[in-house]
Amino acid sequence: MDRTRAMQIFCRVVESHSFAGAAMSLSMPRSTVSRAIQDLEAFLGVKLLQRTTRTLSLTPDGSLYYDHCQYVLDEVQRMEAVLSGNTRKPRGRLRIGMTSSFARSIVLPAIKTFQAGYPEIDVVLTLGDRPVELIQEGVDCVVRAGIPKSSALLVARKIGSFEWLICASPDYLQQYGAPRSLEDLAQHQVIEFHSGLTGRAQDWRFVVDEEEREVGVKGSLAVNDTDAYVTCGIEGLGLIRIANFLAVQHLRAGRLVQVLEQYKAPPVPLSIIYPQNRHLSSAVRAFVHWIGERVQNVATDWDWRP
């Protein structure tokens, strides 16, 4: 039995709260994970995990062993880094969560440069805006908009920010005219975007006379997918509010027109979030550096002007 590998599997089971989650994050069959834990318990002569049909919890011996495993594995990683002089090329599978719109607009057009720089990293993009439990789901890092919830287990690093723009199609504006004030929004067709995080539409926020102001918007059509939301705007179904990095291509092509540009919205931070670990994997470290540079390089294009 490879005890170091068994310890790694045991720790991942504990952190994932399930054998299936650990198997998925480690890219191995569930039966292999289960057998590794059984062999480890047989070798130690103690029960490490208490299993029921619905829950998985540490026994007192398991809790003690988990703490020591964490210490030992951290020390192994630290020593390997010292001995290798950090010259080893990043490698392995890297699972990254982000919204499909961010992937399509920012990441995918340049992902070849990341792959060329790190050919031994296999990138798996997990797309969507639902909450992701990084440790339990075996996701290495996620890119998210807004201010992430604080957690002692996670690190959030700001990589940039964006602004909301209110847009409509030329056909819509020709038929209904353009809103001139925030009060005019109540007289217009507004497409609601239902967030995957909350399941409901958010009020639109603006900065008026150096104070934040929220405007409630309601419409007869709502969607929960960014591509569909943008399409609604292009097809003249109503006003939409989208990130400037999504709007810029449609504004330049004339498919959308910005309205109410005199009312600025508070900038929205973009963060990359990853588990707190003294020895962050070289693959995650490489992507954090790359995505930070990528966002900064394209940020000037987001500041669209007609």
Task: Describe this entry's structure for a reader.
With 306 residues, this protein is α/β, with parallel strands linked by helices. The protein folds into 3 domains: 3-84, Arc Repressor Mutant, subunit A, CATH 1.10.10; 92-142 and 276-300, Periplasmic binding protein-like II (D-Maltodextrin-Binding Protein, domain 2, 3-Layer(aba) Sandwich), CATH 3.40.190; 164-259, D-Maltodextrin-Binding Protein, domain 2, CATH 3.40.190. It is built from 11 helices and 14 strands. The strands form 5 sheets. Strands 4-3-5-14-6 form a 5-stranded mixed sheet. A hairpin with a 2-residue loop joins β9 (204-208) and β10. α2 crosses α3 (30-44). The chain is elongated, with a radius of gyration of 24 Å. The model has no long low-confidence stretch (mean pLDDT 85).
Shape: elongated
Contiguous low-pLDDT stretches (5 residues minimum) are none
Kindly identify the CATH topology of the largest domain: D-Maltodextrin-Binding Protein, domain 2
Q: Can you identify the CATH class of the largest domain?
A: Alpha Beta
What is the gyration radius calculated from CA atoms?
24 Å
Q: Please give the order of strands in the largest beta sheet.
A: 4-3-5-14-6
* N-to-C SSE string, H for helix and E for strand: HHHEEHEHHEHEEEHEEEEHEHEEH
What is the count of distinct domains?
Answer: 3
Corresponding CATH architecture of the largest domain: 3-Layer(aba) Sandwich
What gap, in angstroms, lies between the N and C termini?
A: 66 Å
- Quote the average pLDDT: 85
Secondary-structure content class: alpha/beta
- Largest pleated sheet: 5 strands, mixed
| CATH superfamily annotation of the largest domain | Periplasmic binding protein-like II
GO molecular function: DNA-binding transcription factor activity; sequence-specific DNA binding
Protein name: LysR family transcriptional regulator
Family: Belongs to the LysR transcriptional regulatory family.
Keywords: DNA-binding, Transcription, Transcription regulation
